Structure prediction request, 621 residues.
Amino acid sequence: MNLRCQSCGAALVVTEEVRTTVCPYCAAPSVVERPPSLDRPEPTFALGFALTHQSAGERVKHWLRTRHPWSHSGLARASLQEVRGVYVPAYLYSALAMSRYSASIGENYTETETYTTTENGKTVTKTRTVVKTEWRALRGEHAEYVPDVLVTASRGLSNAELEHLEPFELRMLARYEPALVAGWVAEEPSLSRDECLSQAREEALARVGRRLESFMPGDSHRDLKHETRLEAESLEVCLVPVWVLVARYAPDKPPLRVVVNGQSGEVYGKVPISWVKVLLTVLGVAALGLLVYLLRQGGRS
Amino acid sequence: MTAVVTGCERCGSALEVGDLRCPICALAVAQARERGVLPEKVRAKVVRCGTCGASLEYSAEVKAPRCAFCASVMHVETTADPLEQAEAFLPFTVDVAAAREALGRFLGEKRFFRPSDLAAAAALRSLRPMWWPAWGFSAGARVSWAADSDAGSGRSQWAPHAGQVGLTFQDILVSASRGLTERECGKLAGHYALGGAERAPRGPEEAQVERFDVTRSGARRQILAAVEAGAREEVERTHIPGRHFRNVHVAVVLSSLETRRYALPAYVLAYHYRGKVYRVVVHGQDAGVVLGDAPLSWAKVLLVVGAVLLTLLVLLFARC
Prediction:
């Protein structure tokens, strides 16, 4: 798609997936405005970046140095490339959850029972208190608002990655303005609204399930089943700030993608494992085991 | 002062200027200001600085869009979180002389453990009229509850129960005062005529207004906690069967929550008796409500303890 730069009139090349661009001639940052559609609504909210380029890099370097002992040894010396601040589109979902549940509630009680045992060669009868559980059926209704469910609307950042970066501080929410994303990369939603809605409902239901788990009375419970209707749903596009970096840790390996929460600085990436280190550890443990075994054998003979 | 603008479309709770989402159910608030027509065709727009006309960029350092040339920062609409301020003042209907009299009556009360010369020997040290801050809320709530109680129990002494109930709260006061204790606020709260609230303070000239030292979001957290505590209390009192219970869980769906920020009149008095200072609070609208500390007569306490011990000893010897 070709657009004109409002500053110098040069032609701008903008792909469908982005909302922002920078003019290659005059460096003026532009924000693209498109007629909204069902799958690409106008963003309602945006969370501004609070973490600078430099501090994002430092966080990632620290994160790379402090991975587990079996991670690839090149990580500590990895060079960071292509550090980009991206406003990732996500859907902010909320609803009223109305549930009917049934469960077996365990109520403990104590009983005194007699038993026989052998003491000093004699059989004696003794008593002891044991805790037993009485199971009672419980049915009921539960209603609560489920606020602040955030799901990705971008193919670039999976929902699992977004979950690792959460929570975002939603109190800092701002109403979307082009000025908030000017000069940064802002993506358009690339997942359909329906896909995101079902993902959000799934998350909301999982949250209700967890709430019900802690709502149950008794000393324990089992067979908790619930039927939940989500009513008065709302779904709004919110742009969330994410630093995306590429770490090169070995010349023969593909680079590692690391994402950072642009507000809190939470870092996430899939740490490559060094199989050589794992193998050495296994061999070491096996050798130690063998040594102990041999020493014991030697001690017996 | 923040004014109520409208109600939330989902839960009917009152929204205030600066709310982007409903604080109760998290529904987005429809945009109040006109943003212009939605774009009909695709175009690239350069956001310009209102001061010098250069292009703006969002800056993570200042957490706002900033002009790289003149460094002016553009304001964007975010959730406002101002410090709370009283909007409804209750007038003093008890004057300074009446408050003094109330203290006199309090000191003159005949209590066994009080020193008998208290009314004569106590001297007023200070009398401070003040308005203490409190939130008043009204709301409807659908409360789901689950608990163990002794009703219907079998082998175990507990049996599970659950239910759902609709409750309404009307003008419940939650204290925001640091000067008065929670117990004092609780006792004063029941005696105010909330209907007679005025927009400006009216009372003794030297009266001070204690500030709400809390932001709006902090206030909402305290109010929600108070609603939940109120719901739990009500459920425990009237809805859970049986006499003893444990594991009481409540889930609350609020609707039509309205809060008002009150300034409530009271007198804080201090008197000293034998070198020690004691505090008394007199209600600003009902001189009959007086709360306070009074000294103990240790001679009387010792006398009673001695008498009890003596009686026990006598009883013991009588048995032997």
